[in-house]
Design goal:
The structure holds 2 protein chains of 2 kinds. Chain A is an alpha+beta fold. Chain A contains 3 helices and 5 strands, in the order H-H-E-E-E-E-E-H. Chain A has a 5-stranded antiparallel sheet. In chain A, strand 2 and strand 3 form a beta hairpin. The radius of gyration of chain A is 17 Å and the shape is globular. Chain B is mainly alpha-helical. In chain B, the strands form 2 sheets. In chain B, strands 4-5 form a two-stranded antiparallel sheet. A two-stranded antiparallel sheet of chain B has the order 6-7. The longest helix of chain B has 34 residues. Strand 2 of chain A pairs antiparallel with strand 2 of chain B, so a sheet runs across the interface.
Chain lengths: 116, 733
C-alpha cells in the first residue's frame, strides 16, 4: 500500500523537494514530529531497545537516546525479560525488524496515515 | 475507501500484522499504544536527500559518533552469542553435574577444569577482569549446583575464596593503576566468608590419598583393609590420576595459606608464608610433571598447540567467555587470550618467587634500606599481586609495618637519636604532612614503572613545598638565635636535620625519575647528553646532602662523640677519615654520568653523532619537555638550558684527553666494593659500573686519538652492561 502511494506521488511529480507543500517533505515533517518521543525498536536477534528518538538518516539508521535494552533469558518465549541501560545507541537499518512509537490512541490514525 | 485504509492501518498498529512479536511486558504509557511507524519512516527516508538527517536542535554530530552501534561485536556487549543467559546455558547442558557418568571421563574432565581455571586465574592476575576469566566458568557462577560432586565443589569453593582474598588485598592497596579491571566483581558470586572451604578440601584430599594408597597396595604387598571405591574405573590410570589431582589440591591449599599468612598484621605471618610458598613451588613441579600421564592417555601428539590451557590438551567443559559480557560496562570488554597452561604455571612460579622475596626482607630495615629494596625488587618486573602485597605489608594503619610511626621512621632516616622519635614536634602540621608524603612515596614505589615515573615527577613539587615550609622558621630568625629558649633551640636542631634529609630525599626522587626514563625508553639517543647532564647535576646535590646528613651522626666514629648538630657546610670533612661508602657509591655514578655527558657533547660538537637533529623541535624545547617537572619544582635551583649549553658547547676530544672521568669511576667502584660485604645487590651493581666505565674509557681513548681524523668511525650507544648507563660502541663502517 505504502509503496504504491509513494510511487503515485512520484509520478504526479510533486516530489521535486522544492515546495514546502510537496508530500515528500510532509513525510519528513511528520517524522520530525516524532523526535524525542519514546520509540521501541526490535532487532533480528530478538532484543528490543526503548529510547528517545534522536536521529534518522536516509539509509534508515536510527539513533536512540537514553536507551534501555530488553532481552529475554531464554531463546523461546514466553520468558522473563532482563533490562539494561545503554545510553546513546545507533541501530543500523539492516538489523532492525520493527519500529513502534508511543502515541495516544486518537493521534495514531493521523500519525500513521499516509494520506494527506 | 480512505477510511477503510485508515482502519487497516490502525489494525496494523495494534501490532499483530507486522509479523514481529512484541513483548507485552514492555508497556506503553497510560492511555497510549505502540504504533508501528515503519512505513512512515521508510517513506520519509525515501524523500531525504543523500546525507540529510532528521534530527532535533540538541543533535551534535560529534557527540552522535560516540553512540554504541548495535550488533557490532566491539560495541554491543548484549549481542546474543550462544546462550541468552547462564540459566539457558545450564539447561542446554553446558555444565553438567556430574560431568560424565563414566568416572574415568569425569575425573579427566575435572582435571581439565582445574587446569583451565589456573590459566584463567593467571590471565586475570595479568590485568583482565574476573568476569571474563575465572568466572567464565559456569560451575563457579552457580555454586550450589556442584554440591553432589565433592571434588569439583571443594575446588570451586577454594578458588572463590582465593579470588576474594586477592581482590581484597589489591583493593586495599588502591594502586589505581590501569588494572582497575582487576577488582571489578559486580554481579559475581564472591561475597561471604567461607570458613569451611579448607576443611572440605582437606576431606577430599584425604579420600584421594587413601585411594592412592589403595591402588598401590597390591604392589607393596599390603592387604587392602579399607573398603574404598577407587577414584575411577581404569586401574592402570588410577595412580597417575590420583597423584595429578592431589598435587593440584595441595597447591591450592598452600596458596590459600600463603595469602592468609600475608594478611596477618605487622608481618607476623611471613615466616610461615615462606614455608607454604616452598610447598606451593614443589606441588607446581609435580603438576608440571603430571602432563606426561594426562596427555599419554588420549592424543598422542605432544606438540599439539602451544596455547592449550590444560595439561591434557583437551578443551575444558563448562566454560563460556561470552556469558558474562553484560556484567561489564555497556561496551563489551576487549577480547582476550587466556594464557596457555604452561604460561600459567610459569606465572605462578614467578609470583611465588616474588612473594618469597617480599617475605624474606627484614622487618627492621631503615627507610633507606626499604627504598633500596623496593628499587631492587622492581628490577624483576613483579606483577600487580605481589606489588600489592608489598605495599600492604609496608603500610598498615598509617604506620610502617603497622608498627612504627612515620615520624619515628623519619627521625631515624634523618640520623636523629632514638629518644627523639616521640617528640611532640611531630604533631605540627608540617611534619604531619611530611609523614603523608613518605607514605605516599612508599605507595608510589610499589606501582608499575610507567605509573611510578609519572607520579614521582608530580610529587617533586610537594616535597619542594614541604622543604620551603620547614625552612621558614630558619629564614625568619636569622641572627636571633640567642633569644631562643633551650626547648625552642632543641626543636630548631631537630628541624634542621630533618630539613637536610628532606632535601636528600627530594634529589633521590629526582634521580629515580630521570633513570626510570631509560627503563621506559623515553629518551632518544640525541637526548642522552642532556639527560646524563641533568642526572649528573642531581646526583651531585644528592651526594652533597647525603654526606651532610651523615656528618650529623656519629655512626662511623664510635669513639668520638659528635653530639653537637652542625649546620651548614661540610667543611668539617677534614675530621672524617674518609667519605662514607654510600656517598662514594654515588660518586661512581657521578663520574659515569659526567663522563657520558662530556663524551656525547664532544661527539655532537665534532659532528660525529649519526643522529640527525629532529626537524620538529629544537634542543631547547626538548630540554624543557623532558625536565619540565624538575624545573617547576626547582630541583635543583638555578639549572636551565643555558647552564647545560655553557657546560657542553666547548667540549672537544682534545679537551677530554686531559681528563678521563671513566677511569675515576672505575677506580672508585673498585674501592667501594669492599665496603658492602653483605650486600650482593650493591656488589653486582658496582661490577656493572666498572664494566661500563672500562668499555667507555677504551672507546674514549680511541675517539680522542682517532676521532676527528677518521670519518669512517661510527659511534653508537647500547645498554648491554647497565640498564641506565650507556656503553659506547665504536665501529668502522
Amino acid at each position: 500500500m505504502e509503496e504504491q502511494r509513494v510511487e503515485a506521488l512520484v509520478s504526479e511529480g510533486s516530489l521535486d523537494g522544492s515546495g514546502i507543500n510537496s508530500s515528500g517533505s510532509d513525510y519528513v515533517f511528520r517524522v520530525r514530529n516524532l523526535l524525542f518521543r519514546r520509540m521501541l525498536v526490535g532487532i533480528k536477534d530478538g532484543r528490543f531497545f526503548l529510547g528517545a528518538f534522536h536521529c534518522i538518516d536516509k539509509q534508515g539508521n536510527i539513533i536512540l537516546q537514553d536507551a534501555v535494552e530488553y532481552r529475554s533469558t531464554r531463546r523461546s518465549s514466553p520468558s522473563p525479560m532482563e533490562q539494561r541501560c545503554l545510553g546513546l545507541i545507533l541501530i543500523p537499518s539492516s538489523c532492525r525488524t520493527s519500529c513502534h512509537v508511543d502515541c495516544f490512541i486518537e493521534e495514531q490514525l493521523s500519525l500513521l496515515s499516509l494520506n494527506q | 475507501m480512505d477510511e477503510r485504509r485508515a482502519e487497516a492501518a490502525a489494525a496494523a498498529a495494534m501490532g499483530r500484522h507486522d509479523g514481529h512479536p512484541r513483548p507485552a511486558s514492555i508497556p506503553s504509557g497510560d492511555g497510549s499504544v505502540w504504533a508501528d511507524v515503519s512505513p512512515l519512516l521508510e517513506a520519509a527516508c525515501a524523500d531525504l536527500q543523500e546525507g540529510e538527517l532528521i534530527h532535533g536542535d540538541n543533535f551534535n554530530l560529534f557527540a552522535a559518533m560516540s553512540a554504541l552501534e548495535i550488533m557490532d561485536p566491539k560495541m554491543d556487549s548484549g549481542m546474543v552469542c550462544r546462550y541468552y543467559s547462564v540459566d539457558e546455558a545450564i539447561e542446554n547442558g553446558a555444565a553438567p553435574v556430574p560431568i560424565s557418568f563414566d568416572k574415568t571421563v569425569d575425573v579427566q574432565c575435572t582435571i581439565d577444569i582445574m587446569d583451565h581455571l589456573l590459566a584463567c586465574e593467571g590471565t586475570w592476575h595479568k590485568g583482565h577482569s574476573l568476569a571474563q576469566t575465572v568466572f567464565s566458568c559456569i560451575y563457579l557462577l552457580r555454586p550450589e549446583r556442584t554440591s553432589s560432586h565433592a571434588l569439583l565443589h571443594s575446588y570451586c569453593r577454594i578458588i572463590r575464596a582465593t579470588c576474594k582474598a586477592v581482590v581484597s588485598v589489591v583493593s586495599d592497596a588502591r594502586t589505581h593503576e590501569e588494572e582497575d579491571l582487576f577488582t571489578m566483581s559486580y554481579g559475581l558470586p564472591l561475597i561471604g566468608e567461607d570458613e569451611k572451604c579448607l576443611s572440605m578440601l582437606n576431606a577430599v584430599e584425604e579420600t584421594i590419598a587413601r585411594q592412592l594408597r589403595a591402588c598401590k597396595a597390591p604392589s607393596s604387598g599390603r592387604k587392602v583393609i579399607e573398603d574404598l571405591e577407587p577414584l575411577q574405573n581404569n586401574p592402570a590410570l588410577e595412580e597417575g590420576y590420583c597423584k595429578a589431582i592431589l598435587c593440584r589440591l595441595r597447591f591450592r591449599k598452600h596458596f590459600y595459606h600463603v595469602l592468609m599468612c600475608l594478611k596477618r598484621p605487622q608481618g607476623r605471618g611471613l615466616q610461615l608464608a615462606r614455608k607454604h610458598i616452598s610447598s606451593c613451588l614443589s606441588e607446581l613441579e609435580i603438576i608440571r610433571k603430571s602432563t606426561e600421564v594426562l596427555r599419554s592417555n588420549d592424543y598422542g601428539t605432544h606438540n599439539s598447540g602451544e596455547d592449550k590451557t590444560t595439561a591434557s590438551g583437551r578443551q575444558p567443559v563448562g566454560f563460556d567467555a561470552s556469558i558474562n559480557t553484560r556484567l561489564s560496562a555497556p561496551t563489551p570488554p576487549r577480547s582476550i587470550k587466556i594464557l596457555s597452561w604452561s604460561e600459567a604455571v610459569d606465572y605462578f612460579v614467578k609470583l611465588l618467587h616474588d612473594l618469597d622475596i617480599i617475605c624474606s626482607f627484614s622487618l627492621d630495615a631503615s627507610l633507606e634500606g626499604i627504598l633500596q629494596f623496593m628499587v631492587q625488587f622492581q628490577k624483576s618486573h613483579p606483577d600487580l599481586v605481589s606489588r600489592a602485597h608489598l605495599q600492604t605489608l609496608l603500610i598498615q594503619d598509617g604506620k610502617l609495618y603497622g608498627r612504627d610511626s612515620i615520624f619515628a621512621v623519619i627521625t631515624k632516616a634523618a640520623g636523629l637519636p632514638e629518644i627523639l622519635r616521640n617528640h611532640d614536634i611531630q604533631n605540627g602540621e608540617c611534619l604531619v604532612q611530611l609523614g603523608q608524603l613518605v607514605i605516599n612515596l612508599l605507595k608510589i614505589l610499589s606501582t608499575n614503572a610507567a605509573w611510578q615515573r609519572r607520579k614521582l615527577g608530580k610529587i617533586l613539587q610537594d616535597w619542594r613545598v614541604i622543604h620551603i615550609q620547614l625552612e621558614l622558621p630558619f629564614r625568619q630568625e636569622m641572627g636571633e638565635e640567642s633569644g631562643l629558649s633551650a626547648d625552642q633551640s632543641g626543636r630548631q636542631d631537630i628541624l634542621r636535620q630533618i630539613l637536610v634529609w628532606v632535601e636528600e630525599q627530594t634529589f633521590w626522587i629526582a634521580s629515580r625519575f630521570l633513570m626510570l626514563g631509560f627503563e621506559l625508553e623515553l629518551y632518544s639517543p640525541g637526548e642522552y647528553c642532556m639527560v646524563y647532564w641533568y642526572i649528573y647535576v642531581v646526583l651531585i646535590k644528592l651526594a652533597e646532602r647525603m654526606h651532610h646528613k651523615m656528618s650529623f651522626t656519629n655512626a662511623t666514629e664510635p669513639a668520638k662523640t659528635r653530639g653537637k648538630k652542625k649546620k651548614g657546610s661540610t667543611k668539617d670533612t677534614s675530621r672524617d677519615i674518609q667519605m662514607p661508602a654510600s656517598v662514594l657509591f654515588l660518586q661512581s655514578y657521578i663520574c659515569l654520568a659526567e663522563g657520558l655527558t662530556m663524551m656525547l657533547a664532544a661527539l655532537r660538537n665534532e659532528r660525529m653523532l649519526s643522529q640527525s637533529p629532529s626537524p620538529f623541535n629544537s634542543d631547547h624545547e626538548r630540554f624543557i619537555q623532558h625536565f619540565e617537572l624538575l624545573q617547576k619544582a626547582g630541583v635543583p635551583d638555578h639549572i636551565s638550558y643555558q647552564s647545560f649549553e655553557e657546560s657542553t658547547k666547548n667540549v672537544r676530544f682534545s679537551t677530554l684527553v686531559m681528563y678521563n672521568y671513566f677511569k675515576d669511576a672505575q677506580r672508585i667502584a673498585k674501592e667501594v666494593k669492599n665496603s658492602f660485604p653483605n650486600d650482593p645487590d650493591r656488589q653486582s651493581e658496582l661490577r656493572r659500573v666498572e664494566q661500563v666505565a672500562e668499555h667507555n674509557s677504551i672507546a674514549l681513548t680511541v675517539l680522542c686519538r682517532l676521532g676527528s681524523l677518521d670519518p669512517s668511525l661510527k659511534v653508537s650507544f647500547d645498554f648491554s652492561h647497565h640498564p641506565y648507563f650507556a656503553t659506547a660502541v665504536v665501529k668502522r663502517s
